[in-house]
Write a structure and sequence with these properties.
Strand content: 5-15%
Number of helices: 6
Mean pLDDT: 88
Oligomer: single chain
Shape: globular
Radius of gyration: 16 Å
Low-confidence stretches: 1-6
Largest sheet: 4 strands, parallel
Distance between the termini: 28 Å
Order of helices and strands: EHEHEHEHHH
Length: 153
């Protein structure tokens, strides 16, 4: 269980792929009274790379990270659900450094279906290529998201 008084001990961290069920997991766990998930769900504190523009939060320090869990009660299990930790080796190192006892949760799905779903989501949020094929041609690094064998080492 987490100790919220001075420092948050994160009990579990979802590191799985994007578009692989993290929203469902968050909704299910958030309904449980003994589990605390930050209201914003995807904190992405440990990331320094993402497939879209984001705020780099790690330099703000662990105090900033802990602020996301300020609403947790002392008897609640505390979790962070941030799917893009999956693709950032620096996030893996940072998580282990600060929370070596945290349980890791990882959902995966067919990598091509995941990547296509991500493309559709990103296309809704920002300007992207008109077709999936064009997007991959413009951003071939997105294929790295499909390399589960490399990302889970």
């Amino acid at each position: 269980m987490a100790t919220i008084d001075k420092e948050v001990a994160v009990d579990f961290i979802y590191i799985g792929g994007p578009r692989c069920g993290s929203t469902w997991l968050s909704a299910v766990l958030d309904d449980h009274p003994q589990i605390f998930i930050p209201p914003s769900k995807e904190v992405h504190f440990f990331n320094d790379r993402m497939p879209y523009i984001f705020e780099y939060k790690y330099p703000l320090g662990l105090g900033h990270y802990r602020s996301y869990f300020a609403g947790a009660q002392a008897d609640q299990i505390v979790g962070d659900i941030s799917p893009f930790y999956f693709l950032d080796p620096n996030a893996a190192w940072r998580i282990h450094r600060h929370f070596p006892e945290a349980k890791l949760i990882c959902f995966l799905r067919d990598p091509v279906a995941m990547l296509y779903s991500l493309y559709l989501l990103l296309r809704q949020r920002e300007r992207r290529a008109a077709t999936f094929t064009e997007e991959i041609e413009k951003n071939p690094h997105l294929i790295d998201l499909c390399r589960y064998d490399r990302l889970l080492q």
